[in-house]
Amino acid sequence: METLNAESTMSTTTPTGAVESVVIALHKVIDLLDRIKGAIEESSNKIPKAAIQLSTVTQATEMATVEILNVLDMMSHKIETVEEAVARMSYGSVNGQADLATSVQGTLAEVRQDTMNITMALQVQDITAQKIAAANHLIESVRLELMHELSYFEGTELRDRLIVPTVTLPTAGAVVAFDKNASYLKSTETQERIDDVVRQFREQGRSAQDPS
Amino acid sequence: MASMKFLVVDDSITIRRIITNTLKTIGYSEVVEAANGKEALDKLAAVAIDFIITDWNMPEMNGLDFTKEVRNASATAELPILMITTRGTESDVIEALQAKVNSYIVKPFTPQELKDKIDEIVKVTSVNAA
């Protein structure tokens, strides 16, 4: 790649040659500024997208956390109910102990379901991981673009001043697959819509096999 | 059908664990796990599997390419495949169906959705096999 090097562009011996060199240097500067403008414009587009990805991570984790806290509140209440029932049973002061035991069993079954609901809410981890990977991808592409533009200053003092010490990311070298549209917001309609698509696809397949 | 052996393919350890726990809750205790399509093909070659649950976005080999590999191999071509993914557009679903997945769930899923889809696939594949 051609680089901006003051020494090479200004080494002339005649006045005409000096003017030509200045013109050439100016062209290079204009070209460089255009490229920097392009890089900044591209970065300006990508950084907000990364910011949006990260803000959706906050929303998703908050939703999942609230879901888990709600389930834990319900579980806490159910455990109190079971404790009271067990205490009454242990004092032997209960008429209809069999009914109470059935009620306790029912409550414990609900608690089991609650633990399952907490497990399901933890799917948020996979969704936020994909969002963060998408944001990382955008930030990395901006960094690469800027590094590419900096290479124009190869061998100049300016480049040495601009280059910051390299930081090794924990994900460096790792191949990360992600869906930038991953969302924790899933309504029953989403799955119903997908089931409809599956149904239509199968029906089309069947009618293609049996045109009559 | 409770003795079915499942292969769960997902690059997220959390999701693999959630699916495995859910399968155990609904009565399926035999589960083999893989972190991507390539690893899953190795597992398929080594262990007899009855049912595959796979993610789409994975490194090394994604779920779509994995599905195509499974369908192209005579030994595994008829295995039931359920895709569980975050990708929820109509074109995504159609692409997966064209690769011949049996059914499709969008994350986040519920245990009931997983159970219903497994039951549905098992029912259809049993009828077809009969």
List the defining traits of the structure above.
heterodimer, A: 212 residues, mainly alpha, Helix Hairpins, 6 helices, 76% helix, 0% strand, B: 130 residues, alpha/beta, Rossmann fold, 5-stranded parallel beta sheet, 5 helices, 5 strands
Walk me through this protein's architecture.
The complex is a heterodimer of chains A (212) and B (130). By secondary structure, chain A is mainly alpha-helical. Chain A has helices spanning 6-10, 15-90, 97-121, 124-150, 157-162, 188-209. The mean pLDDT of chain B is 93. Chain B has one domain: 3-Layer(aba) Sandwich (Rossmann fold). The longest helix of chain B has 19 residues, at 111-129. With 130 residues, chain B is of the alpha/beta class. Chain A binds chain B through residues 116, 119-127, 129-130, 174-179, 181-184, 186, 190-191, 193-194, 197-198, 201, and chain B through 10-12, 14-15, 18, 21-22, 25, 56-60, 62, 85-90, 93-94, 97, 103-111, 113.
Short description:
Chain A is mostly helical.
Task: Identify the CATH homologous superfamily of chain B.
Answer: Response regulator
Pattern of helices and strands of chain B: EHEHEHEHEH
Count of distinct structural domains of chain B: 1
What kind of sheet is the major sheet of chain B?
5 strands, parallel
Fold blueprint:
The complex is a heterodimer of chains A (212) and B (130).
Chain A: H1 6-10, H2 15-90, H3 97-121, H4 124-150, H5 157-162, H6 188-209
Helix pairs in contact in A: 2-3, 2-4
Chain B: E1 5-9, H1 13-25, E2 30-34, H2 37-46, E3 51-54, H3 63-72, E4 81-85, H4 90-98, E5 103-106, H5 111-129
Parallel strand pairs in B: 1-2, 1-3, 3-4, 4-5
